[in-house]
Design a protein that fits this description.
Chain B: This is Guanine nucleotide-binding protein subunit beta-like protein. The structure holds two protein chains of two kinds. Chain A is built from 43 helices and no strands. Chain A is mainly alpha-helical. The chains are: A mainly alpha, B mainly beta. At the A-B interface, helix 27 and helix 29 of A face strand 24 and strand 25 of B.
């Protein structure tokens, strides 16, 4: 078989030896006559699928580009240049050419070489017939074993990083060259501007889908590459560009379909590509897609195509996508309420649709959700639930937890002071009651109706309700809820007329009223008309600076009413820690709501030391009400409504609290006290000490006083009981129980290495705080070694170093007897092998050092 | 009764984050962005549509920022207490200072004033009784003005080509800036307004009226009559066409800044009483509209937005907070 290796090496040698332009020319011509002749397309495919070419081309081409071309090109005439050099670039597969060009950019510090490289690279991103589209077609024709996914990933990384590489190199060169070439830099900076660049790339991708489908090249190989590329673009935050171009195409193709079940190759291929987007980028892509749908639905009102249906197949195959649509989008990422209908019709065909709705209603009925989520988010989730419930039957509702969730949720909504939340609750309740009780559905009256009318209606309802005994209880609950806000409003309206300002609620509502009044009066606000003055009463009392609460319950109230009263946040936060440390009687009752409130507190305003105050308060709660708060926090850690930053915070709070508990209460008190001055000062020749102060001190020291030693308190260094040793189980076991479940939105054993590393590090801190020879450590070790066995070869050094740290503590804290009793010798042999591997192979120095420490500890046990 | 009184107004947003007393606040670009300067030399750029902080600029002035003035929608000028004037330009969403010059103002309380076409800048000199006029583009001194034993200059303002200055002795002087001379330019008009030092003034170009405030517990409106600008009586202390028009008695001392809305219909002033008082200026007479009470320390600076649709009013105070108020927005017809 013909060997490219020898071929390239031979010619490279002879090129290096030659010193005359004619020699170079003849050698190059020789290469061309041997290899680069015939049909261009066939030749490219031949090279493409030849593994020996792939292995050996890059060195030769780099040499050609950086050595031969710049040094000898001036000896070539324009024709020769075309016939010789351009042939080289024409015949080489673009799949191989691109990496060579890109990797040479950062090496070229010569203006001439760089400008050449950039000229070639520009060919890749032409708007028409670009090399990149050729590259995509090449990949479609390639052998999956030669162009494997690893190679594709490299290509995608090169494509993604190209603008940055070019810009960086241009900046370096611009500082060196004179101003004559400025035009060149400006032009290229425009060309490789990140926005323009990714826009063209997106265009090329979408165009090539067309080409692939029409030429019937559309296979898995190309879909894989395009999926990766689209994922990369989403990951670099340019989803909007690709979606902007994708949408019109998608629309025209969807329009061709009468029914979604009929087949369109383009759409099927697009589905294939989306399926191949890597898991770590898919969410970005989906968010971009939904955002674009948002805008589209604003522009076009009669959009009857449900674009989300292209994700139909993917939903069953990829759990992340399902998680996104069934949970994240409705509960965490808001969208236009119009999309809610599309979303539900997408989810409708899912086998566990009832379960999905159950989860949504659970989120909807959560008090914290009602309190902390934005109006848009709330509206979207409400719309989703309204659409979803309509599909369900009474049977399904009764069998699941939906009924309970909904009743709670509606009650909380009705209690809310905000009118829009009450309205959401009412509308949902109306729809819900149609399913529970189709003959006599619940109907809420407008808030503005007269009281008499309402009374009549309610009486009628009462009579009717008596007939149906089964549903009586539910209905009554709702009716009570319904009365409350209405009565309140009525009252407020009356009070408004009398300008009664006693009731804070009334003030709030009258403010809203007066605002609407504002609009009216300003309408006829001509240049000379009178403006209506505000209340000009000015009590001469001055405003106090921020109020600090005196009771814990006040503090909680202040923190929960932050939206209405911005000053409350500052006061509440400042007072919080001090109040908790006093351990008031109601701490146990209030600790969970307080923790939850602090954990979700957003930094809406700029407050000095906001993070510090919040963390200190949280740590204080954990220390003072450990038994109640720790189970709550560990449960929250695996719940769905915390983001990654909050989860990390939970871990940090737990470890800070563990450290404080283990150091004992006394040391905490000592910290607050000032250190007693040390009597015995070392002799010093400090001349600045005044004699006035020296002599009284000397006399004091020399004077003998009876009983002085007894009266004086010695600086104590008393021992203390490590309270944490007893409580470590409470901290540790709930956290380690669920690390491998996928139910939480983060995949700890998968790509979320940061959280995993942090979790393992926190375990290490727990062990450190628990102290040596604690019997519970053996039980912990059993659970931890299970975890370690799974993740010890984790690819992120952060995880490995935390793991080694925790392992080191475990090995040094447990006595040899206990350790050898609980684990087999073979088990440790296994770990020993791994540690030896770490010491030699690990790329991170910290890991290598920790591994050697662990090995020392391990060998101590086997003396 | 035509209409009932409205409720007590509350700020729509409160911005926190400065670690020192705030000395100046100004809207900059399209009224969506505003700048605030504080006594530690920090300038912060904020968004008015949300509570977002856009950037923090360190002006490198240890004595702190005294005054900020908008030039156009992407640039503004600052005066630090050591008399350095800096011009800041927005480049790639970052504010960069590309021009600065040193003036002789060392008293660190009189804010500079820019002429209406932004060509010249008036600022007190290092000597009492004196004011200097600089070319704002080049930073070169054009001319200087002098009064007789009036103490330090406290506040400045342009009315067309005239420069008005309030002094420590409570007198208001008018100068003609068109006069060019090597020597000191003498005032063309003057009026005794207050017994105690001047603190602030604002000028309505439309009605040719000067709004003045001082340490005295009163607020005066002075009418400028252009016909009578020549000297009336050379021996009298009072010259020129300045006529006392109206007087508002206040229950407190100290008016730190006065601001007029773009349409010259509404003006507001703030001061040592921690409140902002808003008035309507109709038929050339003031009518009280609102008392804005929120701050817990002296309010140092206020500014109306140019865009009347929003009707925003900014206030920066010694209590390190900035408040944004919405008052009488004009609706589109």
């Amino acid at each position: 078989m013909f060997s490219f290796k020898e071929f390239f090496i031979n010619f490279k040698d002879s090129l290096q030896k030659s010193k005359e332009p004619s020699q170079i020319k003849s050698i190059l011509n020789q290469i061309i006559s041997i290899q680069f002749k015939g049909n261009e397309q066939e030749k490219i495919i031949e090279f493409l699928n030849n593994p020996s070419f792939k292995q050996n081309y890059s060195g030769f081409y780099s040499y050609l580009l950086t050595e031969i071309y710049p040094n000898w090109i001036f000896c070539f005439s324009e024709e020769e240049k075309n016939s010789i050099f351009n042939v080289f670039f024409k015949f080489i597969p673009k799949t191989y050419l691109f990496p060579v060009l890109v990797s040479n950019i950062s090496k070229s510090f010569d203006f001439f070489i760089l400008s050449n490289l950039i000229d070639y690279l520009k060919q890749f991103i032409l708007s028409e017939n670009s090399y990149l589209s050729q590259l995509i077609i090449e990949i479609a024709n390639s052998d999956p074993q030669i162009i494997n996914s690893i190679y594709m990933e490299q290509l995608v990384i090169f494509i993604g990083s190209l603008p940055e590489r070019v810009m960086k190199q241009l900046r370096i060169l611009q500082s060196k060259t004179n101003k004559d070439q400025n035009q060149f830099f400006i032009e290229n900076e425009n060309y490789f501007n990140i926005h323009n660049y990714f826009n063209t790339i997106s265009k090329i991708i979408i165009d090539s889908i067309d080409v692939l489908v029409t030429n019937q090249f559309a296979n898995g190989q190309a879909a894989n590459f395009l999926g990766m590329l689209m994922g990369k673009i989403s990951r670099l935050n340019h989803t909007d560009l690709i979606v902007n171009i994708l949408f019109p195409e998608l629309k025209t193709n969807l329009a061709k379909l009468n029914d979604f079940s009929s087949k369109n190759e383009w759409i099927i291929y697009l589905q294939n590509i989306v399926e191949k987007i890597p898991n770590n980028c898919i969410e970005g892509f989906l968010i971009g897609f939904v955002r674009k749908m948002d805008q589209e639905s604003n522009i076009q009102k009669n959009q009857d195509q449900n674009m989300l249906l292209i994700f139909n197949d993917l939903l069953q195959k990829n759990s992340l996508v399902k998680q996104f649509f069934a949970d994240k989008l409705p509960c965490n990422i808001s969208a236009n309420p119009k999309i809610a209908g599309y979303l539900i019709s997408l989810l409708k065909s899912e086998p566990d649709f009832v379960q999905i709705i159950e989860n949504l209603t659970f989120c909807w009925s959560n008090k914290n959700f009602i309190k902390f989520c934005s109006k848009e988010q709330h509206e979207f989730l409400t719309k989703c639930i309204q659409n979803g419930i309509e599909i369900l039957t009474k049977m399904e509702v009764n069998q699941s937890k939906i009924l309970g969730n909904m009743l709670n949720g509606i009650q909380y909504h009705m209690e809310s002071p905000l009118s829009y939340i009450r309205e959401f609750g009412m509308k949902t309740a109306e729809i819900f009651s149609k399913i529970i009780n189709p003959e006599n559905p619940l109907k809420f009256t407008d808030e503005s109706k007269d009281e008499e009318e309402k009374k009549d209606e309610e009486e009628k309802k009462d009579e009717e309700e008596k007939k149906d005994e089964e549903e009586k209880k539910d209905e009554e609950e709702k009716k009570d809820e319904e009365k409350k806000p209405k009565q309140k409003l009525k009252k407020i309206q009356n009070e408004n007329e009398n300008e009664n300002e006693n009731d804070p609620d009334a003030l709030f509502f009258s403010n809203i009223q007066s605002n609407s009044d504002d609009d009216l009066s300003d309408n006829d606000n001509d240049s000379d008309s009178d403006l209506v003055p505000y209340n000009l009463e000015d009590d001469e009392t001055d405003l106090d600076s921020v109020k600090i609460p005196v009771y814990l319950r006040d503090c909680l109230d202040m923190l929960t009413s932050v939206e209405n009263e911005p000053d409350n946040l500052e006061g509440g936060l400042k007072g919080c820690e001090i109040l908790i440390r006093k351990k008031p009687g109601d701490l146990n009752d209030l600790s969970v709501p307080l923790t939850s409130c602090l954990l979700h507190l957003m930094k809406v305003q700029y407050i000095e030391n906001f993070e510090e105050l919040r963390t200190n308060s949280l740590v204080a709660i954990v220390v003072c009400a450990t038994d109640i708060v720790v189970p709550f926090l560990t449960e929250q850690f695996y719940s769905q409504n915390l983001n990654i930053a909050q989860k990390i915070e939970v871990l940090e709070i737990l470890s800070a609290a563990a450290m404080e508990i283990s150091s004992g209460e006394k040391s905490q008190e000592q910290k607050n006290k000032k250190q007693p001055p040390n009597k015995l000062k070392p002799f010093s020749l400090d001349l600045e000490i005044q004699p006035k102060t020296i002599f009284p001190n000397l006399i004091e020291e020399k004077t003998r006083k009876w009983g002085w030693a007894l009266r004086q308190k010695k600086p104590q260094n008393e021992g203390y009981i490590n309270q944490f040793a007893k409580k470590i189980g409470l901290f540790f076991f709930p956290l380690i129980k669920k690390y491998d479940t996928r139910k939480n939105s983060y995949h700890l054993l998968g790509e979320d290495g940061l959280l995993l590393g942090k979790l393992i590090g926190t375990f290490g801190i727990f062990i450190d705080c628990a102290g040596k020879s604690n019997p519970i450590l053996v039980e912990m070790a059993k659970a931890l070694f299970d975890l370690f066995t799974v993740v010890r070869y984790h690819k992120e050094s952060f995880v490995r170093s935390n793991l080694l740290y925790t392992l080191y503590l475990l090995l040094s804290f447990i006595s040899s007897d206990l350790l050898l009793e609980s684990f087999s010798f073979q088990f440790f042999e296994n770990f020993k092998d791994w540690l030896e591997f770490e010491i030699v192979q690990d790329s991170n120095q910290n890991c290598r050092e920790l591994a050697s420490l662990c090995l020392v500890e391990l060998s101590k046990h086997f003396k | 009764m035509k209409k009932t009184h409205k409720q007590i107004p509350q700020p729509i947003r409160v911005y926190r984050g400065h670690s020192e007393s705030i000395s100046s606040v100004r809207f900059i670009s399209d009224n969506t962005i505003f700048a605030s300067g504080s006594n530690d030399g920090e300038i912060r750029i904020w968004k008015s549509q949300s509570n977002q902080l856009v950037s923090i600029i360190n002006s490198n002035s240890k004595k702190g920022i005294l005054h900020i003035e908008k030039i156009d929608s992407s640039s503004f000028a600052t005066q630090s207490r050591d008399g350095v004037i800096k011009l800041w330009n927005c480049e790639n969403s970052d504010f960069i200072s590309n021009f600065e010059f040193q003036t002789n103002s060392k008293f660190s309380f009189c804010k500079f004033s820019l002429s209406l076409d932004f060509s010249s800048l008036a600022i007190p000199s290092e000597n009492p009784d004196e004011i200097e006029l600089f070319d704002f583009k080049s930073g070169k001194k054009i001319s200087k003005m002098q009064t007789e034993k009036s103490g330090m200059c406290m506040t400045l303002g342009f009315l067309k080509d005239q420069l008005f200055a309030g002094f420590e002795n409570g007198k208001l002087y008018g100068f003609d800036t068109r006069m060019l001379s090597e020597d000191f330019i003498q005032p063309v008009s003057s009026l005794s307004c207050f017994e105690q030092p001047f603190l602030s003034l604002a000028i309505s170009q439309k009605y040719e009226t000067i709004f003045t405030g001082s340490v005295d517990p009163k607020f005066l409106l002075v009418q400028v009559s252009s016909e009578n600008i020549s000297q009336k009586d050379p021996f009298s202390d009072e010259k020129g066409g300045l006529i006392l028009k109206d007087e508002i008695q206040l229950g407190h001392e100290g008016t730190s800044e006065i601001c007029l809305r773009n349409d010259d219909q509404i003006f507001a002033f703030c001061g040592w009483d921690k409140r902002i008082r808003v008035f309507q200026f109709k038929n050339k007479t003031p009518k009280p509209l609102a008392i804005l009470k929120f701050h817990t320390e002296t309010v140092n600076s206020i500014h109306f937005s140019e865009d009347l649709l929003n009707g925003y009013l900014l206030a920066g105070s010694k209590d390190k907070k900035i408040t944004l108020w919405q008052l009488y927005p004009k609706r589109k017809k």
